[in-house]
Design brief:
Belongs to the FliS family. This protein is mainly α and 187 residues long. The chain has helices at residues 3-16, 19-42, 46-66, 69-96, 99-121, 135-144; strands at residues 158-160, 166-168. It has a domain at 3-121: Four Helix Bundle (Hemerythrin (Met), subunit A). Strand 1 and strand 2 (166-168) form a beta hairpin.
Length: 187
């Protein structure tokens, strides 16, 4: 496939992909450019190292722009801080030729990529709010499904017997609370 056709294919792939897939593509691209910067740094090719770091910085900047702080809450804020930390490390690596800083960024990106890949490949049931990202909605979900927020155990139902004694159903059904969440915007 010639270069022009490949670029057209890539552009189509990005514009038609779901936001979650675009997120994974951004991580993959950033990891690629950080690794390329490491290679160019080792080869003493300063200009090419700088270009690769600039591309990684641009991708991290886009990752920051995709955060939805209304949906993501504290997780979104934490991700933004982590992205800013990575940007600082990339700038330090570029200015001082510190390969260790590139390795730190690469490790963080790989960890995030693996985590998001797991979230994308193992989605939660539709309509189930995340306990960490949307605690108020999650509490309402548990209440409507008669579950305890701390244990995930269905609350025991009580009934009153004719003599006034209270009977408790001890056959509690254990349910796993949903995990994961999506803090990227659906632009």
């Amino acid at each position: 496939m010639n270069s022009k056709a490949f670029k057209a294919y890539q552009a189509t792939n990005v514009t038609t992909a779901k936001p979650e897939k675009v997120l994974l593509m951004l991580y993959e691209g950033c990891i690629k450019f950080v690794r390329l910067a490491k290679t160019k740094m080792n080869e003493k090719k300063i200009a090419e190292k700088g270009k690769s770091i600039s591309k990684a910085l641009a991708i991290i900047s886009e990752l920051i722009n995709t955060l939805d702080h209304e949906v993501g809450g504290q997780l979104s804020a934490d991700l933004e801080n982590l992205y800013m930390f990575m940007m600082d490390k990339l700038i330090e690596a570029n200015m001082h030729n510190k390969i260790e800083d590139l390795e730190v960024v690469e490790k963080l990106l790989l960890t995030l990529f693996e985590a998001w890949t797991d979230v994308v490949n193992n989605p939660r049931p539709d309509g189930v709010p995340s306990p960490k990202l949307q605690p108020e909605l999650y509490a309402m979900y548990l209440t409507s499904n008669n579950q305890s927020a701390k244990t995930g155990v269905t609350k025991n139902k009580q009934s009153t017997k004719p003599n006034g004694a209270t009977a408790v159903n001890l056959s509690a059904e254990v349910k796993q609370p949903p995990v994961g969440g999506n803090v990227i915007s659906k632009k």
